Amino acid sequence: METWVIYAILASLFAGVTAILAKIGIKGVNSHLATAIRTVVIVIFSWLIVLMVGSHTELASVGMRSWVFLIASGLATGASWLCFFYALKFGTVSNVSPLKKSSMILTIFLAFLVLGEPVGITQIVGILFIIAGTVVMLDKKKASEENEGGGNWLLFGLLAAVFASLVTILGAIGIADVEANLGNAIRVVVVLIASWGMVFLTGNQKGVGDISKKSWIFLILSGLATGGSWLFFFRALQIGPASGVVPIDKLSILLNILFARLFLGEKQSPRRLVGLACLVIGTLVLVML
Predict the structure, then answer these.
(1) C-alpha–C-alpha distance, residues 209 and 275, integer Å
(2) Residue 54, phi then psi, degrees to nearest 5
(3) What is the pLDDT of residue 148?
(4) Residue pair 64/173 in contact by the 8 Å Cβ criterion
(5) Which of 16, 145, 174, 232 has minimal CB crowding within 10 Å?
(6) Do 82 and 213 form a contact (C-beta atoms < 8 A)?
(7) What are the distances in angstroms from CA 83 to CA 35, 39, 90, 157, 215?
(8) pLDDT below 70 — which residues of the chain?
(9) Number of neighbours of residue 67 by Cβ within 10 angstroms
């Protein structure tokens, strides 16, 4: 098994628990504020790793091209998070996660256009399975009820997927000539600035004192899980193809669904299990190219 595959699997494992921890932590907390708090944890985690491996000494040698794409990737990350946590606040993990995981479809298309990675018949078959799985998994009746409960999570879930695909492509270009841990740390600083800028712009910083102890714990744990996932993901992306790394990372949906059942009590109908099977089959087809 190639090294980048191992890193991508580890990224998937950490990503699998992120949505569950965040769903618990975000209860009763403004989605912008929750995103900003998690980002603080991720920044600290990421720069500690940088200092431990000594890659901070390479900061001065980062080229202008890398800076531009890492900053752009960071801004796309911030936008994806804000949309994802807004969607997660009003929608169930079982509905929001498949939607966000569909970002791999656009990622593969962009990898073909921007990075020159080939797209063959096998990949098209995998993409069709993923599209079918996503559509089947979405519970339209439940989605309608959730939208009536507070916000159009479906729209924001789709936007989260679009921005997530941009994160991968921009990040792949940005870290091409940068040590993976350092590149990731630079990106999260951009996310930190953007997320807290949104908090102060909307006046939600006043809600910090109202956050419960339970929410603090789960938001911090969610941030640590995200930090771990990113470190492995961008290391995999640095040494492996984006069209291979992304599908493996998206297998985290299996853990999302499993933990949603165990800890949030979200039940899965036979129809949604069929959809999940289509997602997994499509992902495995892309991975085994």
Answers:
(1) 41
(2) 80, 15
(3) 47
(4) no
(5) 145
(6) no
(7) 10, 14, 11, 6, 19
(8) 139-151, 287-289
(9) 13
- Residue 206 burial class via C-beta count within 10 angstroms: exposed 0-12, middle 13-18, buried 19 and up: exposed
Sign of the CA dihedral with 171 first, then 174, 176, and 179 last: negative
Q: Which two tokens stand for residue 215?
A: 């929410």
Query: Are residues 185 and 72 in contact, defined by beta-carbon separation less than 8 angstroms?
Result: no
**Could you tell me the two tokens for 242?**
């984006």
- Cα(198)–Cα(201) distance, integer angstroms: 5
Rg (CA), the chain: 18
Determine contact, residues 42/188, Cβ cutoff 8 Å: yes
> Per-residue DSSP letters for 62-77?
--HHHHHHHHHHHHHH
For residue 152, what are the contacts with CB-CB under 8 A and spacing of at least 6? none
The half-sphere exposure of 70 on its side-chain side, counting CA atoms within 13 A, is 26
Structure tokens at 239: 């040494």
Domain range for 180? 3-287
CA distance 153 to 155: 6
Q: What's the confidence (pLDDT) of residue 211?
A: 93
- Residue 131's identity, in one-letter code, is I
Contacts with 250 (C-beta within 8 Å, 6 or more apart), sequence order: 12, 101, 103, 104, 283
Go through 91-123 and write b for each residue having 16 or more CB atoms within 10 A of its CB, e for each that does not.
bbbbbbbbbbbbbbbbbbbbbeeeeebeeeeeb
Is the Cβ–Cβ distance between 253 and 97 less than 8 Å? yes
pLDDT score at 197: 92
**Among 1, 10, 25, 87, which residue's Cα sits nearest to residue 252?**
10
- Close Cβ partners of 239 (under 8 Å, ≥ 6 residues apart): 3, 4, 7
Q: Tell me what pLDDT residue 196 has.
A: 94
Reading the block at residue 227, the tokens are 């930090």
Alpha carbon distance 83, 32 (integer Å)? 9
